[in-house]
Amino acid sequence: MSEVVKSKQQLDDEFAELYRAHVRDVYSYAYYRVGNHHDAEDLTEQTFLQAYRHFERAQRESDGRPLRPWLIRIAHNLAANLYRDRSRKPQAPIDETTTPIPALHTTEELVEGRDELGRVIEGINELPDDRREALIMRFALGMDNREIARALGRSDGATKVLIHRAIRQLESIVTSAQADKTP
Amino acid sequence: MTEAATNFETLLREALAPIEPPADLVLRLELTLESISEIAAEELESWELKAMRDPRNWVRPAAAVVVGGTAGAALVVLRARRRSHQQHKAGVAAARDAAERTLRDVGGEFRRVLRLP
Q1: Which residues of B touch A16 (CB under 8 A)?
Q2: How close A131 gets to chain B, by Cα (Å)?
Q3: How is chain B split into domains, by residue range?
């Protein structure tokens, strides 16, 4: 098989495209993973720097498959290192100052839904790491099972089971929290 | 899939809405690239021409050129900072103008390097 050697310009252009397409994905993943903007920025920065260094090899080895799982895997590994180095979990799971991209809601729906969303977010942070990550990839980034499997280094089947169990466990946590709150 | 399950997944999608990266993240990324650029430049300087006669030694300097070239845009940050510092003496309004120019400089340079539209 002949190997196509790309010019630096071509690689830079392709990396720019990757950056543009996925900076929000990486930041979103990082934010939900570490729970605060400061660490999320660091993580995003380090992810792209590391990605740049290994971009050519990743392209060669990807066989034309999308590189998003590879990027998220870098972020995943860096986040794991961050926790290992600090020997701690996120101090505050989600910043109170978070301003997610707003979905279209009426004001009434927002007021009614705020408590429920809060319980879901709290529930997500109670999940084991692998389940939480799988849900972040699925719902914050919109990744499919195959992409998540590649990012987590698991089989497609194992990933499908992981996501299913994560949703069921979260649902159970949220339902319990709701029942506790109901008089 | 049941309606309840669908509703719960909708709720999850809302709870985990994507987060836009802050604008100053681009600035920080450039500053980090500048550091890499300096390391890459030092790497190049440390290589004598005699070492370059051996093809086995071509890989590291070539990598340094790649990294250095990409990170060159970060210099604009320093230029803009100096300009901002001078402008600060002229008053708050002037400094604000300088900050705006800084952002424009950085944004433009970053787009140029990363070929963003």
Answers
A1: 113-116
A2: 13
A3: 27-114
